[in-house]
Prior knowledge:
The complex is a heterotrimer. Chain A has four domains: 1-30; 121-189 and 405-484 and 494-522, 3-Layer(aba) Sandwich (Rossmann fold), CATH 3.40.50; 196-393, Dimethylsulfoxide Reductase, domain 2, CATH 3.40.228.10; 612-764, Barwin-like endoglucanases (Beta Barrel). Helices cover 30% and strands 18% of the residues of chain A. Chain A has a seven-stranded mixed beta sheet with strand order 6-5-17-16-15-7-8. In chain A, helix 5 (170-182) runs parallel beside helix 16 and helix 6 packs across helix 12 (364-378). Chain A is globular, with a radius of gyration of 28 Å. The N and C termini of chain A lie far apart (82 Å). Residues 6-26, 382-386 and 754-765 of chain A have low confidence and may be disordered. In chain B, strands 8-1-10-9 form a four-stranded mixed beta sheet. Chain B has a two-stranded antiparallel ribbon with strand order 2-3. Chain B has a two-stranded antiparallel sheet with strand order 4-5. Chain B has a single domain (5-223), classed as Alpha-Beta Plaits. Chain B is an alpha+beta fold. In chain B, strand 4 and strand 5 form a beta hairpin. Chain B is globular. By secondary structure, chain C is an all-alpha fold. Chain C is 67% helix and 0% strand. Chain C has 17 helices and no strands. The relative contact order of chain C is 0.18. Chains in contact: A-B, A-C, B-C.
Amino acid sequence: MERRNFLKISALTGVAATLDACHAPDKQLIRFVQEEDLVPGIATIKPSICTLCSAGCGLEVRVMQGDAEVIRNGQTGIIKMGLAKKLEGNPRSPVNQGKLCARGQAGLQVLYHPDRITHPIQRTGARGSGEFQQISWDDAIKEVSSHLSGLQTSKSMSGLSFLARPLRGQRRELIGKFLKAFGAPPAVWYEPFDEAVLRQANLLSFGHAALPTLNLGRADYVLSFGADFLGTWNSPVSQSIGYGAMRQGRAGRRAKFVQVESRMSQTGANADEWIACKPGTEGALALGIAHVILREKLAPNSAASRAGAQIAGWAAGLPKYTPQVVEKQTGISAAVITRLAHEIARSGAATAFAGGAPLAQTNGLFNALAVNALESLVDAGRETGSNSGPILSFAPDVPTSIAAKLETSQASLASLTALAKATPQMLLLYDANPIYFAPAATKIREAIAKIPYVVSFGSFIDETSAQADLILPEHAPLEQWLDGQPESGSTQAYISVAPPAVAPLHNTRPMTDVLLGLAHQLGGDFAKALPWTSFDAMLKAAYTALRTQDASMKTKTDDEFWTAVQKDGGWVGASPTAQARSAAATSKSASISASGIQSEPEFAGAAADFPFYFQPYVSQSLGDGSTANLPWMQELPDVLTTAMWSSWVEINQKTAAKLGIQQGDLVEIQSTQGSLRVPAVLSPGIAPDLIAMPTGQGHEDFGRFASKRGANPLAILALVTEGKTGSLAWAATRVKITRVGGPEQAKLVLFSGGLSGFPHEEESR
Amino acid sequence: MSHKWGLAVDLDRCTGCEACVVACRAENNIPTAGEDQAARGRTIQWIRVERTWEGDFPNPKVRFQPVLCQQCDAAPCEPVCPTYASYHTEEGLNGQVYNRCIGTRFCANACPYTVRSFNFFNPAWEKPLNLQLNPDVSVRSVGIMEKCTFCVQRIKSAEILAESEKRELKDGEFTTACAQSCASKALVFGDLNDPNSEVTRMATSNRATKLLGELGTKPNVTYLERGTWQDATNS
Amino acid sequence: MQRTAEQIEKDLLRPIFATSSRYKIAVALATCMVLAGVCALGYQLWEGIGVWGINSPVFWAFDITNFVFWIGISHAGTLISAILRLCNAAWRRPVTRCAEAITVFSILIGACVPLFHVGRPWLDFWMIPYPSERGIWPNFRSPLAWDFFAISTYFTGSVTFLYLPTIPDFATVRDNAKGLRKKIYGLLALGWQGTPRQWQRLEIAMHIMAIAIVPVAVSVHTIVSWDFSMTLVPMWHSTIFGPYFVIGAIFSGIAALILTMALLRKFLHLEEYLRPLHFNNLGKLLLTTSLLWFYFTFAERLTTWYGNSPSEMDVFWSSIRANFAPAFWTMVVCNFVIPVPILSVKKFRTITGTAIASSTIIIGMWLERFLIIVPALDHKFLHFSWGSYRPTWVEDTLMASSFGMMALLYLLFSKAVPMISIWELKVGLQPHGGGVITTAPTIRKPRGLVLEGPLPTDVPE
């Protein structure tokens, strides 16, 4: 071959090869048309709502343009879209006032999680086999509506069940209306750490079946019984803001904070005084303190007229709760009880409240009522309106047009066990994973297996959605219209609403729009009950009704009002006066009797066989387990133990020494319901006869970051309940503990203390 | 007016919630190490909350202290870097030039606070988690040291904006990611050269201390000591 | 019985011209070890330095231990050759080249370690002070930059110091060789003819080098020690590190030399040349340095303990009685408890005795480097950041391979160059007062220059 030809041919083939690589159809990603207008490099801030816990904090989402690889109409391509880069608190939300907690920051990872289900899938294999196949939305909707029609035809509409995590706001309204129009029973709202006991106690003591709002920024003395109010309880961000203010926010005034609990929580670690009380006797301690106050007339008896009336013997000065008697019950010395009484009564502005383990006992309601009575006694300004109102009050009601009517708190557990027994024909799941979040003893897993048709609206495969027949994946929270009605955390009336911050990444649809679509298809009663075709239309209608009742926003038209509300992320009522706040603190409606309430705690498992109290506690990073699939949360060291990517139990150091357990050893925890194997962490901040374990791990099935990791303490809880509310007494299970292996088997990962397996004795404390 | 950036940490307000840790991670494209690497001590935390136990049950006491790069004026990490990757900026920051770092890790050893982190492997984000990455912050590759920069990208953005509007920066106009998220307002960022700024007020408080101040590193992070303990005597 | 010049030549040139099967096996084994290291290194460069066991806060461990260890071993040659040359100690003659070879190769290996322990080795060239287009120079304040200059100077100096006295021997080989070998050695010999003028130049050059190399060697290891003591890390920030490291280096260097000599003696049949006398004298030097090492260690530990500074005591106790106690006490036993009795008693100061002592010292000195680095990094000021360290197979392989590399280089060297300086031995045959040696026509001793003293006659052969 001639050289010239050779070069020509080589050049051609070379170029062709290069071109081929550039434009080979299977290698090139299509560029889709941009769906929105964004300036590259410039961030837009959009409001949203955090849905990772029930506090309902407002968000600001930093959105910037970027390239995302997406699938549209079955084709993979690249699209320029707004991407959420960072979450901050929304400064206009009265709950979190521009601040955000650790879990809230991780909300971004829900949106961009690699395990998100990206399109509707239908089960092809056996239930739980994990075999699903993609189907189109049209087919999926057809499936669901055909099943719903089937129920209608066979007149078994009551066979439809809807199981969800408790909601407030228009989403709750929507679900409620849908079920009512269908003729199905009301939704089952389940979460493991529901606060049914506290709501019931607040209803009895103060006339409000709601979680309290704590204005800690005004306090001089805070006595908390078991409430992890800076970490996971109630409205942690709002409470943390108040905490900072009460410590160093006022010149010359620094509040004292006393925490009563058996296991040092993140909150308790900040206390000036930490008091370990025998589990279940916190109410007795509160009454012991109240006794001293009443006896020494440090506060007027009338100050706690309503809350005190719930306690037998209050009017007589609580003769059964002298410090000496209480000392025997609680293990706390009479001198300390007396001193606390003096301190709290003499403080300018004091408050006492309870949450967490003390309420999760068989006598939880009693404990809550006792603490509420003490709170009434010491939180000056409750009845009289002085000092700008009490520290503990209740969020003002929002106008009823928009407020979802709250049923009196039926405990979640009762509803769930009822569901398990009822065996419905069809189950709709929304943000619910009862197989993980409920104790195995509820037998919910077996119940779900018997339900003929299960549909999940979830974004992720989890223990329960793995059993579904059809999954209709939801938009991530940042991708959809959200609304909320925080139960606490704000002294002003507040409801939140937010449009989507970013366009949907995957082929998903929000549950709200799907339900409205189904309603539209089913016609009839639905047309009247749910006339909207999309959720934002429903929201707009609700807000428009609100506008007529409140002139504070000074807008001329409904549209203006709607736009303003969206921009702010919600609607905030006028700042309450001191009187209004005091009035909000205790409703004057007739009191209900609290007779027949158990005052002594009972535990599952005989003390001889199961020598330790078992206290599961909500994890700072994983919550109750719902954020376990977020890698940022798995890698966040628990602030007290520094453990990451792990489960563990906390054991008192001396107890561990007696049992021959060393830091990082593998131990077996056994209750009457089952056993778990987890590493042990030695701690000085826990009572010698108590073992504590964080919730969150132990998922069988929850994506690549959370599956098959650690153990779930909820699984081995006995179904002990609080008598009046039927609420799960999750702190009332007893266990025994045995060492079954060394650090190599346990594989505890600690941030501080080096490699697991090489524990440092310095860090074992 | 030339700026000197500083941070104040009020230990009486810090609750140990670690919101700052996650906020920093999100803002600065910090990779997740994963369980295996975390077990090997390879997690990267530009800010960490240190927890110290004192005493025993029934009177255990805990101290929380967020520790981050102290941006020392006499930084021990600066002279030892052979390639000048660690240097002092005009605004008082200890700058880390990612491009220039060859990864001798001398700076990490020299730092008494152990606040420097190293990329032992090339970081990876499983799609689509990479969509969250902040375009204002470089992603570091294997062999590079990194640490808290006082969110220098936010500083620069704010400075550019102020300059374009021909005005001075206002105290509180912008802040670092950690301080922005801190619910109890324990973290306060600002200009130490501004006598009226919040951070200056805190840095000159009578509770002000410096971490390992006796070493002479002249840190620009000031810690305000906790208020008085009330000793519990459960007797 | 004294050897003649011809016999000397024949014995010492034999390894160059004859290859035993034992040699081939040894080279094969060493090559395997080196290849294992190359594979491990390749894996490390590909995956990232995370394949090691280093972490936060222990950012340096095996890597810098090996670096300091090998640079330390290099001090053998310097001491023996230069100082003994300057002191006119005649017994050094058969020993000098072995020692200088150890120096060169261990610096080479030692210098490779920092090149590859960095996170981005392809950018190592930024340590070289060249006028870059970025306008940035290396940071001359950094001890690592000092390391760069010190080690490159030392390496250059040591190579020169090794090469110069080998020229006459290259000439001898050239004269005895044929063909390609003759050409190569001819090049290496630089046209040496053994003229008086050449001898004069050689002697002056050696003298200058001997004087110059001593401060270079002392400064090199001092600078290496300043990688640690220039920081504030507890128990690194110690003024004693400079002399401590130099003594430790000499100590480990002599031990390495003794071991090498013992092996050479056995495998190259140099029994007549490397005699108990040499081991005895080196043994005495080893004893001295062992005592000095113990003195420095004791002084450092005593002052730390007495001062009782909390951050230093954390590191102190971690070595004495906590995690690192086994390593620490092994080190003391290896460096002091075993060697001192052996080396103090003349009866035990034999070839075998000194070889045993040297072996334990090599282990002990490696442990010493490790124990300087890791416990301190493990236990810095903030307790919360304490960590721990465990090496991975990559670090183990690289370390083993460094020994393999040393063995390989040494084996190849012994094939190419007479391990004992032929001309110096021949010179040593002369009775006191000088005179011209008449052997092969290549070596002539010029009049008037006294090179060395006579062979001592009061030492048993």
